[in-house]
Each structure stands twice: as C-alpha cells, then as structure tokens.
Design goal:
single chain; about 400 residues; alpha+beta; Beta-Lactamase; Helix Hairpins; Heat Shock Protein 90; five-stranded antiparallel beta sheet; five-stranded mixed beta sheet; 10 helices; 12 strands
C-alpha cells in the first residue's frame, strides 16, 4: 500500500516520473479505494467521517440507514446536526470533542424502530501540526446485548428474591417460636389462676409479657428491613453537594470510628459539581458503605478508611477505601446478595440497599479488593445533562 509520504513525494516529482509508473501507482490506489469501499459497505456498524464542525464527509450504507432509514438522498456535505434526531442530536450538540481522547456514549435511535446504539467518536489529527482535522464516528446497534443483560438481571433478581424470602422466613421463625412458647405459658398461668387471683406468679407473668413485646418489636424490625430492601422507591431528586453529604455522614460515624481506633479521612474534590440526588437515600447508601468499611478493620490491628470524590465526563465518583481484611475474589459477586454477610450479627441487607439506591439513581457501583490489603468501593453517579448548543443559522 503506498504510504502518504510516498504519494506526496510522487506528486512533488511528477515531472521526473515516467507515465507508466504514474499509471501503475494510480491503478493501485483505485484498487485499494475500491477494496475499502466494499469492506465499509458490508460492515454491520455505521461508519461516519466529519470535519471538526460536524459536516459529513463520508458515511457507509449502514450509517445512512441508521440516520435516515426512509431516504436515500446523499448526506455528504450536510451538517450531521441537521440530520441527527433525538438522543443522537443531544449527544452531538452537547459534546465538545476532546482531540486528545475518544468520546463514547449510548443513544436510542427511534427509526425505523427503537434501537439502543453505542457511539464512539475518534479524533483524527494532522500528522505534523497535531491539529484536529476530522472525526471518525462508529455507531453500533447493541439492542440485543442490552436485552440479554436485562434478562440476566431479571433472572438474578428472581434468584435474589428467593434467597431473600428464605432468609426472612428463617428470621421470622425464631421470634414466632418464642412468642408461641410464652403465649402457652401465659395461658397455663391464667388457667391455674382461675378463681384464685392471689396464686398468679406476677413476676413471671410480667417477664413473659416483656418477652412477647420484645419479640413483636423484633418481628417489626425484620419486616421493615425486608421492605426497605425489596420495595422499589422513586427517588425525590434535588440538587445537592455530594461533598456535604459525605461530611455530614462522616461526622455521624466519627465517634464510632474513634472508639474502634480506626482513622477516618477524606480527600474531597472542591470543584465537585452539584448533581440531582435523593438526599436521604444517598446519605443512607454512603453511610452503609463507610460503616461497612470501618467494620472490616480489626480494632486490635487498627487501620484507616479514606473517602474520596472526583468527577469526569462519565460522572461524579465516590470512592471509599479501607485497609481492612479484604474480600476473597470468589465472594465479590455475592456481597450485594440478600442475607450474605461475613459479620457477626450482620443482616446481609446493608450492601443490597446500597446497590438498590445507586441503581435507582442510574449509577453503578464497583468493588476492588485484595485479601489482607483492603477494599475499594466506587460509586459513580451521572452528571446533569449539559445544555444543548443551538445550531448556527445557515
């Protein structure tokens, strides 16, 4: 394949090259162009090339079909913003493409039928000046992938619900047994005391009533934990400072950490933008993650928990790192499951609640851990949608 340098040298020395050599080079270039056109025409992905102002320079047939499924009119020379619709338009209009890195996202194309597509934008720079000269965009239909993921999540939810139900049944059985025993005792005392009120064992009666009351409260807590873990809630969103929520949570937990001889530190980005969240729910999630991190540290050995924040194009990130015992690799996939816990007296619902809250905020949570070195929980939440730039009038 003739390189760019070769072609430039050939052009600069055309008066010195004989006609058969020029003809041979041109024939090879035409053959290569034809070959690449065949390859691009048969790709399942939509390929687009624009100039830095998003004017279309090239698009393959698949990209043409994805952008204008009901029209075969040529699109080269038109602004991509005048052709794109819906979420694709919003993605392109609000992005300022960085010439130093690839920009990615997901959009829904509504025609000819709704399809979830990933979009990747690659900057093309001039070899000498390193100036942005073009943008290469790849549109890929990932509807089937997302559909399979949704089905897998549904299966996981059913499996989790089964485990949750079994756990609740187990938890409820113990206080019910205690209630049954003490109710039988109360009945026996009442039967023995019929007509002989002075023979009632009052201290024993009071103790049985206290036990019944405590077991009823215990049942109520079990049911409340169960409901908070499984019932879907609609977050009440309002703009909030994530740093402020973290500071408030850390102050609440600080006495507990000091008592356990565990250092609680923060490294919060002062430029972190405010984002829409359900303040109470997110505080609960942050509380659970920080508390869980502290409980992983042996008070006899000591250690630290560090909370960090930062942001980038993909969202706002909250990182909680501890120097605790760590989580075995084979158990990482279980920590968000209901009733899975390695702590004495733990309910196994705390991290499940965290996962639910983050998911309801359209975020995600990632865990890295190493036995003996500690664990890092990273919560990522979406930024506010940037305002759409208005098209310049032509």
């Amino acid at each position: 394949m003739p390189t760019r340098e070769f072609v430039e040298k050939l052009v600069s020395n055309l008066n010195k090259v004989d006609s058969p050599e020029i003809e041979r080079v041109l024939r090879r270039l035409v053959q290569q162009k034809h070959f690449f056109e065949i390859v691009l025409a048969n790709m399942a992905e939509g390929i687009l090339v624009t100039d830095p102002q998003l004017t279309l320079v090239y698009l393959n047939p698949r990209a043409h079909e994805m952008l204008t499924p009901h029209s075969r009119r040529p699109l080269e020379g038109k602004s991509l913003l005048s052709v794109a619709k819906g979420e694709l338009f919003e993605f392109l209009a609000r992005k300022e493409f960085d010439p130093s890195k690839t920009t990615t996202g997901e959009v829904i194309l509504e025609e000819p039928e709704p399809a979830i597509c990933s979009i990747s934008v690659y900057p093309i720079l001039d070899d000498r000046s390193r100036r942005l000269v073009s943008l290469l965009m790849i549109l890929r239909d990932i509807s089937d992938i997302r559909r399979e993921e949704a089905q897998r999540k549904q299966i996981e939810k059913l499996s989790s619900l089964s485990a949750l139900t079994a756990g609740v049944a187990h938890d409820i059985r113990n206080p019910l047994n205690a209630l049954h025993i003490h109710v039988q005792m109360l009945k026996a005392m009442l039967n023995n005391a019929k007509g002989e009120a002075n023979k009632i064992d009052v201290p024993r009666l009071e103790k049985s009533v206290d036990v019944v009351e405590e077991e009823i409260k215990r049942l109520d807590k079990i049911i409340e934990r169960f409901l908070s873990a499984v019932r879907p809630t609609r977050p009440v969103m309002e703009l909030a400072s994530i740093n402020d929520l973290i500071r408030q949570t850390m102050e609440t937990l600080r006495p507990e950490f000091e008592a356990a001889m565990t250092e609680l530190k923060s490294e919060l980005d002062p430029e972190l933008p405010r984002i829409p969240v359900d303040i109470e729910q997110l505080k609960r999630a942050i509380f659970n993650v920080i508390k869980n991190a502290g409980e992983s540290i042996d008070p006899k050995l000591g250690g630290s928990v560090t909370v960090r924040t930062w942001f980038n194009d993909s969202g706002v990130h909250i990182e909680v790192e501890d120097t605790g015992s760590g989580i075995a690799r084979e158990n990482l996939g279980l920590i968000f499951e209901p009733y899975y816990t390695t702590k004495f007296g733990g309910t196994g619902l705390g991290l499940m609640n965290v996962y639910r809250i983050v998911d309801e905020h359209h975020g995600n949570i990632h865990v890295d851990s190493e036995i003996g070195r500690g664990t890092i929980f990273t919560i990522s939440l979406p930024l506010i949608t940037k305002p759409v730039k208005l098209l310049e009038e032509n």
